[in-house]
Amino acid sequence: MNILIVSQYFWPENFRINDLTLDWVRRGHNVTVLTGIPNYPAGQVFDAYQKNPEVFGNYEGARVLRVPMLSRGTGAARLFLNYLSFVVGASICGPWKLRDVAADVIFVFEPSPVTVGLPAVLLGWLKRAPVVFWALDLWPETLAAMGVVRSPRVLGWVGKMVRFIYDRCALVLGQSNGFLESIAKYCSDTRKIRYFPSWAEDVYSEANATPAPEVPVREDVFNVVFAGNIGEAQDMPAVLDAAERLKNNESIRWLIVGDGRKSDWLRAEVARRELADKFLLLGRFPVERMPSFYAHADALLVSLKKDPVFSMTIPGKVQSYLMAGVPLIGMLDGEGAAVIRNANAGLTCPAGDGAGLAAEVQRMAAMQREERRQLGANGRAFARREFGRELLMDKLDGLLQEAVTEDVKKRERALT
Predict the structure, then answer these.
(1) Which residues pair with 255 in a beta bridge?
(2) N-to-C CA span, the chain
(3) Cα(66)–Cα(384) distance, rounded to whole angstroms?
(4) What is the mean pLDDT of the chain?
(5) Sheet holding 131-135, edge to edge
(6) Distance CA 112, CA 146 (A)
(7) Sign of CA dihedral 146, 148, 149, 150
(8) Are strands 193-195 and 58-59 parallel, antiparallel or unpaired?
(9) Domains, the chain, ranges and CATH?
(10) Band of the pLDDT at 207, cuts 50, 70, 90?
(11) Distance CA 370, CA 367 (A)
């Protein structure tokens, strides 16, 4: 099958679409990726790409075509221009760059923004190929939840854009069951909505990983590890509230592996609150290094802000954490918390509840090692059963084939 991926983000940026691309190539599909210039999450174009962009034109056998766009930079205005520039670049330059590329199906990867669907729909029309849209973020709900857009009128316009995109897709996939109801509000034909969650990458199942040398080893501490994007949605103020409540507990240490738009703020707040001896802010590392940091973890932390839209979300890190075989502590509501509880893989408290998080950290730290080990084993077994990579890749292959088959039938009916 000839698969065209449209994604604003791609390798060397660290997103799940990289793993998906690799799997499709291994399965014998002919894969082309239309993407932007790598600059996430710091907002500056990667140095390695600037020095030698030709090196990034092929990813494990997939052809990678990049369109001009502005980097994210800093500030809301620059982020808006970043989103807009990819739409313009992919819509104008994309058709020319893809002029010799055959596409049986177009796959859209959408962690945010939803605008990535606009050039994909255009390409679907030009290539006469069905578009399959994987929604990992909900617009316009997320814009309202983050306070990015407050005007009901503007949110209404965004909703109309979302409907325009969804109505022109063959299938719309939601990353959680909670997403499906929201997607249905903007999709005229609800029969094309499907549940498709993120998977647990194989790298996280690595056993006996060598601990990361960047982390000083201390046998007398309980390490709470947070890995991933540090942004508004992750509610770092509530995490810091929990850390302050445990400030006098010498046995608790917080390891933050990742970066994002709130990284500088977090660093400044850790210093202001005199928590520097409690936090290790380690920065961003490639996904292949994550098992070495998880090897230090006594618990893995996942957090989301308190908002109805986030309660419908299963953060991608939950699947990875579960596969790592380390117990989870979740400060979140809804589907993400339900996964942790259903897996019997850790402890949870409500989103935004710093006091509750502090209590759950103390509770887990007080457990016997064997009890924590069992929670981790429960999580890994659940991840393999519910979010296994091969299981979900097979399902996605079936969904793409469904889209292609239905598109052929639709065109045949139009000719009769």
Answers:
(1) 225, 280
(2) 26
(3) 35
(4) 93
(5) 58-59, 62-66, 30-35, 2-6, 105-110, 131-135, 171-174, 193-195
(6) 13
(7) positive
(8) unpaired
(9) 2-199+388-415 (3.40.50.2000), 204-386 (3.40.50.2000)
(10) low
(11) 8
**DSSP collapsed to 3 states, the chain:** CEEEEECCCCCCCCCHHHHHHHHHHHCCCEEEEEECCCCCCCCCCCHHHHHCHHHHHEECCEEEEECCCCCCCCCHHHHHHHHHHHHHHHHHHHHHHCCCCCCCEEEEEECCCHHHHHHHHHHHHHHCCCEEEEECCCCCHHHHHCCCCCCHHHHHHHHHHHHHHHHCCCEEEECCHHHHHHHHHCCCCHHHEEECCCCCCHHHHCCCCCCCCCCCCCCCCEEEEEECCCCHHHCHHHHHHHHHHCCCCCCEEEEEECCCCCHHHHHHHHHHCCCCCCEEEEECCCHHHHHHHHCCCCEEEEECCCCHHHHCCCCHHHHHHHHHCCCEEEECCHHHHHHHHHHCCEEEECCCCHHHHHHHHHHHHCCCHHHHHHHHHHHHHHHHHHCCHHHHHHHHHHHHHHHHHHHHHHHHHHHC
Is there a contact between 354 and 239 (Cβ–Cβ < 8 Å)?
yes
Q: pLDDT tens across 143-201, in order? A: 888 777 888 898 999 999 999 999 999 999 999 998 999 999 999 999 999 999 999 87
Burial pattern 336-374, b for ≥16 Cβ within 10 A else e, equals bbbbbeebebbbbbebbbbebbbbbbbebbebeeeebee
Sign of CA dihedral 70, 12, 320, 33: positive
The pTM score is 0.86
Contact 175, 197 (CB under 8 A): yes
Strand arrangement of the beta sheet that strand 328-331 belongs to = 279-283, 252-257, 222-227, 299-303, 328-331, 346-349
**Residue entry with tokens 């660290």:** 14
Q: Measure the CA–CA gap between 335 and 344, rounded to whole angstroms.
A: 14
What is the C-alpha to C-alpha distance for residues 358 and 369, in angstroms, rounded to an integer?
Answer: 19
pLDDT in tens, 267-280: 999 999 999 999 99
pLDDT beyond 90 at 1 = yes
In this predicted model, what pLDDT tens digit does every residue of 285-334 receive, in sequence order? 988 899 999 999 999 999 999 999 899 999 989 999 999 999 999 999 99
Of 5-9, 148-152, 229-233, highest mean pLDDT? 5-9
